[in-house]
Amino acid sequence: MNRDPEAxxxxxxxxxxxxxxxxxTRKDFGLKAGVSEKAVYNAEKGDVPSRxxxxxxxxxxxxxxxxxxxxxxxLEGGDPVLAATPTPAAPAPTSGGTPTQVLELMPRVYxxxxxxxxxxxxxxxxxxFDAAVQHLIESVSQRAPQGxxxxxxxxxxxxxxxxxxxxxxxxxxxxxxxGH
Length: 180
Known about the structure:
- By secondary structure, the protein is an all-alpha fold.
- The chain folds into two domains: 5-75, 434 Repressor (Amino-terminal Domain) (Orthogonal Bundle); 99-177, no CATH class.
- It has helices spanning 5-22, 26-33, 37-45, 56-63, 70-75, 99-118, 123-143, 165-177.
- The protein is globular, with a radius of gyration of 19 Å.
C-alpha cells in the first residue's frame, strides 16, 4: 500500500472537491455513499491509513461516479476514472441567462483556472483568466437593473477552502435580491 502522505492528502482533496461540487454536506454525502459522516471526514482528511486501505474509500469513490481503481490511480499521481455509466448532459446554455446561473457557474469557472494551473499552466495565466472573469461579472453587474445582479464583489477562492464569510454574504444578498 502506498504510504506517501502527499498522495493521501491529494486523494482527500479530490474527495472533498468532488463532494463540494455536488453541493453536499459530509452527512448527506455519507448517506449517498452508504458510509458514515465520520468515514467521509476521515477520507477527506487525507491521513495515511495505519494498516490497510479502509473499505469505505471504494464506496466513496463509487458514489463520486469513479471506478474503484481510481483510488490507486490517484495515489500513484493519476486522475480518477469515471464510471462507465453515462451521466446526463449539462443543459445547453440559453441566451437569456439568470444571475442564479452565473452564481452556479462561478466556482467551476475558477476551478477550471486552478486545474489548468495544477496541470502546468503558469500561475500568471490563471490570474489573467480570473481577472477576465471578474471583468465580465462587473460588466454584467453595471448593465443590469439596480440591485438585480450584485455579483461584482465575488472573489475567486480555491475549491475546498470554503467560501470566505464576506463572499458568502454577498452571494446570498445577490440571490435574495434576485428572488431566489
